[in-house]
Design goal:
Structural class: alpha/beta
Strand content: 5-15%
Number of helices: 11
Shape: globular
Number of strands: 11
CATH class: Alpha Beta
Largest sheet: 7 strands, parallel
Order of helices and strands: HEEEHEHEEEHEHEHEHEHHHH
Distance between the termini: 26 Å
Helix content: 25-40%
Length: 294
C-alpha cells in the first residue's frame, strides 16, 4: 500500500474520492451497507448487539459518510440500530434507506409497490431513523403488479411533502431507469455488481453518462478469482492486500460514479474493507483485472 497522511490513515474512506449525489449531497465514495448488522437471514436482532453498534460508530470514525439501509433489513432492525448508534447524526452523514418489500419471514422478500405501503414504509423509516427528511429514498424493487406511475407518484408525493430529498432505484434496467426518469428525477441506482457478476455493465455505463450514482450491492463477491493461484489472489499478493480489498479498489477505480457499500457485522472486517480505499491500482493492474472473468 502507498504511504498516506495521518488523517487518511486514520480515516481511509477519505481516499475513496467524492461524489455529489443529486448534485447536492457530497459523500466519500466508499460507504457502508447496513444489511449484515441484523440477524441471520437478514431477520431479527443481531447475534452481537454491542458489536453491531460498534461497527456503525467505527464506520463514521473511518471517514464513511454514506450508510445504506432499508426498512426490510430485520425488518426495521437495521434502521433502529443506526439511530441508536449514531443519533444525533454528525454533520454531512447521508443515510440512504429503501422501501418496497414485505418480509414474511427469514430469507423471504416480496415486492410491494402499492402507494399505501410505500407511504407507510417511508413514515416508519423516518420514525426509526429519527429524521425529519430522508436524504436518499430508494425504491427497493419496481413492483410489476403495480402501475409504475403509482409507485413513483407515491415517492413524488413524499418528496413534495418534504419527507424525502432524492429518489433512487434498485435492481433496474436502463429501460426502467429511463421510464422512471420520465416521471421523476433519479439520482442513484443500486444494482448487484462485482468482479464475478458484471451483468449491470450497461446500467453502470448509463449512470456514468448521466452522472447518476451507482451503488453496487454484494460488491465483494470474488468466487474462484480469489482462490490460490487465481488472478485476483495473484494481484492481491503482489500488492500485499486481501483479495476483497483489491475487489473494492477495482470498483472505485472502475467508474467515478461508483459508490461501493461493503457491509459486515464485525469491526475488524470493517477496518479491512475500508483500508481498500488506500490501494492504488495502476492501468496495468486494472487491465489484468478486467480480463479476470469467472
Amino acid at each position: 500500500m502507498n504511504s498516506t497522511s495521518g488523517s487518511e490513515t486514520d480515516q481511509p474512506a477519505l481516499r475513496s474520492g467524492t461524489f455529489a449525489i443529486g448534485g447536492d449531497l457530497p459523500v466519500h465514495r466508499l460507504g457502508f451497507g447496513a444489511m449484515q448488522i441484523t440477524g441471520a437471514g437478514v431477520w431479527g436482532e443481531p447475534a452481537d448487539h454491542a458489536e453491531s453498534i460498534a461497527v456503525l460508530r467505527r464506520a463514521v470514525e473511518l471517514g464513511i459518510d454514506l450508510i445504506d439501509t432499508a426498512d426490510s433489513y430485520g425488518p426495521e432492525v437495521s434502521e433502529r440500530l443506526i439511530a441508536e448508534a449514531l443519533h444525533p447524526y454528525p454533520a454531512g452523514l447521508v443515510i440512504a434507506t429503501k422501501g418496497g418489500f414485505q418480509r414474511p419471514g427469514p430469507g423471504a422478500w416480496v415486492a410491494d409497490g402499492c402507494p399505501e405501503h410505500l407511504r407507510s414504509a417511508c413514515e416508519g423509516s423516518l420514525r426509526r431513523l429519527r429524521l425529519e427528511r430522508i436524504d436518499l429514498y430508494q425504491l427497493h424493487r419496481i413492483d410489476s403488479k403495480v402501475a409504475l406511475e403509482d409507485q413513483i407518484g407515491a415517492l413524488l408525493d413524499l418528496q413534495r411533502a418534504g419527507k424525502i430529498r432524492h429518489i433512487g432505484l434498485s435492481e433496474v434496467s436502463v429501460g426502467e431507469i429511463e421510464a422512471v426518469r420520465r416521471l421523476a428525477s433519479v439520482v442513484s441506482v443500486q444494482n448487484r455488481y462485482n468482479m464475478v457478476d458484471r451483468g449491470s455493465e450497461e446500467v453502470l455505463d448509463y449512470c456514468a453518462r448521466e452522472n447518476i450514482g451507482f451503488i453496487p450491492w454484494f460488491p465483494l463477491a470474488t468466487g474462484d478469482l480469489a482462490k490460490p493461484g487465481g488472478p485476483l489472489a495473484h494481484v492481491a499478493e503482489r500488492l500485499g492486500a486481501a483479495p476483497a480489498q483489491v475487489a473494492t479498489a477495482w470498483l472505485l477505480r472502475k467508474s467515478p460514479v461508483m459508490l461501493p457499500i461493503p457491509g459486515t457485522s464485525k469491526v475488524k472486517h470493517l477496518e479491512e474493507n475500508t483500508a481498500a480505499a488506500l490501494l492504488e491500482l495502476d492501468n496495468s493492474i486494472m487491465e489484468e483485472l478486467e480480463r479476470a472473468r469467472p
